[in-house]
Amino acid sequence: MNEYELLERLGQVEIGEAGNTFRAFLRGAARDLILRVMSAEVEQLCGPAYRPDENSAHFRAGSAKGSVLHEGRSEPVKRPRVRKRTSDVESEEVALSSYAAGREPGELHAMLLRALVGGVSTRDQQEVHPESPKASRSSVSRLFAQEGARIFEEFRERDIARDDWLALMLDGVRLADELWAVVALSVAEDGSKMMLDFEVGSSESAEVATTLVSRLVERGFAPKAGCRLLCVFDGSKALRKATKTHWENAVFQRCLVHKERNLRKYLSKRDWGELARFMARIRKVQGARAGREALADLRRFVAKRNAEALASLEEAGEDLIALHLLEAPNTLHVSLLSTNLIENSIRNIRGKIGRVKRWRPETDQPRRWLAMALSEIEKGFRKLAGYRNLPALAAALVPDDKKEGASDAA
Length: 410
What we know:
This protein is α/β, with parallel strands linked by helices. The chain has three domains: 3-105, no CATH class; 109-157; 164-399, no CATH class. It is built from 19 helices and eight strands. The chain has helices at residues 3-9, 22-25, 31-46, 97-102, 107-117, 125-128, 137-157, 206-218, 237-246, 256-264, 272-284, 288-303, 307-316, 322-325, 333-336, 340-353, 365-378, 390-396, 400-409, and strands at 58-70, 73-85, 91-94, 165-176, 179-188, 193-201, 230-233, 251-254. It has a five-stranded mixed sheet, sandwiched between helices. A hairpin with a 4-residue loop joins strand 5 and strand 6. Helix 7 (137-157) crosses helix 17, helix 10 (256-264) packs antiparallel against helix 11 and helix 16 (340-353) crosses helix 17. It starts with a helix and ends with a helix. The model is unreliable at 1-30, 130-135 and 406-410 (pLDDT under 50).
């Protein structure tokens, strides 16, 4: 295997890329790998050692003493030298980007940290980077603890105050037995989404949820001035109670996905298809009248089949069509009639933290993992589907008494 094949196997570079790309895939390389990469860069500039490229302006010029940073220490190396012809008789030395990258402190640490965030456990670091003696379980764990604490601090202290927040989603993540985290996500009027914060506790309790919501308020989170807050939740009484503590006039939209799952528990499988059609109708119709009609049809369907299912449906009531009652555009239904926004994020969180074998709630370990996972997941957020209709939702969230007052003033 030559140097290019080695680097390609590591997933860092494709054959034929320009020499300056070596900087990107050098991160995390140990001393021996840096030597190989420098050799590969020389080969790309000058051609193979015994078959130099006659059309290239570059040529090998021996070697010289040098040093690279490995495990925070300066390690002596014999660096290859390359010169470039500037005229028929003159040439100048070319600085190898691989050698420059090998002298930068922190490159190895940064690479290992990115691997951890991507879901690689400390035990698997040696398999991912077999050439790197730095990738021991203990050293990676220490690095992760330090960097995780820093990222958690940045995550918890960043500014979340905006003047156009419209919707808040709260949901729980089960990390282990008797270890939960309640996560908060919000949507602004321009369609942007943000992971606001989280709180770790032994259950998805009112105390945990209240602590989280209270901290959101302390950090400056509030709905758009003059608007009620739209809260999309899975039906948890603890989450509802915590939210109403600070926003008494909030509008609560129950997650249709959670309710459909709940109804399936009581209905025969042969009825699931018909249930799905009723739920799909609720998602498609627009406005209060159509929403109430669709909900009434669903109630009649469920009432003929199972009393427990009917009780579950009536417990949710018109919270299932809160968005319809606001007369909000149905283009927003796909995003705001369920907690899928935060559910999908939590699913991604599980992908990031699923390799944790042992949670230690007596330490800051759960907070570090969650902060890093949420920070990474947020980078992939896009604007809310149908975001151009969010101003209409904002107008609908203005209480009726304020609308009338504005009309009288006019």
